[in-house]
Specification:
Blueprint lengths: L1 H14 L1 E5 L10 E4 L7 E5 L9 E5 L7 E9 L6 E11 L4 H4 E8 L10 E2 L2 E5 L2 E9 L6 E9 L5 E12 L6 E8 L8 H15 L6 E3 L13 H4 L6 H13 L2 E10 L2 E9 L5 E6 L5 H4 L11 E3 L4 E4 L8 H9 L4 E5 L5 H11 L2 E5 L5 E4 L5 E5 L4 E8 L12 H8 L14
Parallel strand pairs: 13-14, 14-15, 19-20, 20-21
Antiparallel strand pairs: 1-12, 2-5, 3-4, 4-12, 5-11, 6-10, 6-12, 7-8, 7-11, 9-10, 13-24, 15-16, 16-17, 18-19, 21-22, 22-23
Helix pairs in contact: 3-5, 7-8
């Protein structure tokens, strides 16, 4: 009976619609036009001819005004402090240079006295569905919230127009926790006879230091060369290959994801590669190190060309390797694609920059290193666990569903995605004009 009541309660929350509108005919149906001042007001109008299903949508045009910022907003009363809501809308944009920050949907919470409650929540995640894009997101009402403005804007796009349709806001149950137990190993083999022995020492270390139940097991960069007298090219191998086979046996036996850095040969090319092995022992993905230091280039390695993310059964992960940490782009590229956690095999690198990568992107960062510490770091840059001694592991259980909010800025993970200016040209490095 208790289960039935809980199920009914959950269903009632899912079915409680606060806002659902589409096919606008001419009446704005409670929506008003807003801008911070009269001379930044865009043209906001009901377009009876454009719609996603039936004709009719809320349109905003930049009217050749680079200062234009604003559009449509509607206040929804009856918000309960601490409750969760899900927003969904579709938009179509024309002549908009950078949709991530110029097409704005946000929830601006209000107190009972009409003042802002907490910080607005930006809704950044977008999926293309033909000529329209679906924008969705969930947010929690601040403890002093009594209402919320649903705001649909066009920002500083003088030649642009955006149409909004199929707009909804509904109460939903709080998100379920996404608990993930992460283990990262601190080990540096020495006087190894070759690739097989070094890899074997790491596998033995997992058995000694990582308890059962770990969802993720991270090993360092170059586990197939460390401690040997071999070169990168001499230990290079195909992927899948002998090392991924050995790691796959561990992953399958432990029902864990295993990540490690090895050297990959493809034809005449050799890469510094991180592999992701899934719980079944199969290769789930690989990342070829994009930023190679001079020393690796001079020893015959070739850089990778993209920053992939990988879907696991607990969320999205991204991989970085060592020297990548000296540059902002790798972590940013992974966060832009929704990575919840970055796993970084590393030889040695700047600790301050590693902390910055976690903070600036609002993600968990996990390292396994030799000359760089081995730790698990949260989105605030705090180390949750660190393996200080050789032959030990840092272990922590993290909740990927937890929201990390800065006191004065709100949740920067989503806010950064909506304020990041990738449309401003960056000069070619070293080009003197």
């Amino acid at each position: 009976m208790r289960y039935c009541l809980l199920a009914l309660f959950s269903f009632s929350l899912q079915a409680e619609v606060l806002l659902q509108q589409s096919a606008f005919r001419g009446d704005t149906e409670g929506w008003s036009v807003w801008s911070q001042r009269p001379d930044t007001m865009p043209r906001a109008f009901v377009d009876r001819h454009v719609g996603r299903g039936e004709p009719g949508s809320l349109a905003i045009s930049g009217v050749s005004n680079a200062a234009a910022y604003g559009g449509w907003r509607k206040q929804i009363a009856g918000i309960k402090p601490g409750e969760w809501v899900r927003f969904r809308a579709f938009y179509k944009a024309e002549s908009v240079t950078a949709e991530n920050w110029q097409v704005v949907a946000r929830l601006d919470w209000q107190t009972a006295s009409g003042k802002r409650a907490g910080d607005p929540d930006y809704l950044p995640w977008t999926r293309r569905t033909g000529e329209w894009s679906e924008l969705t997101g969930e947010a929690q009402a601040p403890q002093n919230a009594a209402s919320v403005f649903v705001e649909l804007y066009l920002a500083n796009a003088p030649q642009g127009t955006v149409w909004w349709d199929d707009i909804s806001l509904e109460r939903v149950p709080p998100p379920s926790a996404r608990k993930v137990t992460v283990a990262t190993v601190n080990l540096r083999p020495r006087n190894s006879s070759g690739r097989e022995e070094s890899v074997s020492q790491f596998i033995q270390a997992i058995g000694k230091t990582v308890p059962a139940g770990a969802d993720v097991i991270l090993l360092p960069e170059g586990i197939s060369v460390v401690g040997t007298t071999k070169s990168y090219v001499e230990v290079s191998e195909s992927i899948p290959g002998p090392t991924t086979k050995s790691l796959g046996e561990v992953a399958k036996a432990r029902n864990s994801y295993v990540i490690a850095g090895i050297y990959e040969r493809e034809g005449q090319t050799v890469y510094n590669t991180a592999v992701l092995i899934d719980r079944h022992g199969e290769l789930a993905g690989k990342y070829r190190k994009v930023y190679l230091p001079r020393e690796e280039v001079e020893h015959g390695l070739t850089p990778g060309t993209h920053f992939p993310v990988f879907q696991t059964d607990f969320g999205k992960v991204g991989l970085m390797i060592c020297y990548d940490v000296f540059f902002a782009e790798p972590a940013r590229a992974l966060a832009n694609q929704g990575a919840d956690m970055i796993l970084m095999p590393i030889w040695g690198g700047d600790e301050t920059l590693a902390k910055a990568r976690a903070i600036e992107n609002g993600v968990f960062l996990v390292t396994s290193g030799y000359d760089h510490p081995t730790y698990i770091m949260d989105p605030f840059g705090e180390r949750l666990s660190q393996a200080r001694e050789q032959g030990t592991a840092a272990i922590a259980t993290v909740d990927l569903a937890k929201h990390y909010r800065w006191q004065w800025l709100g949740e920067m993970r989503t806010r950064r995605l909506k304020e990041l200016r990738m449309d401003v040209a960056v000069p070619q490095p070293g080009l003197v004009r």
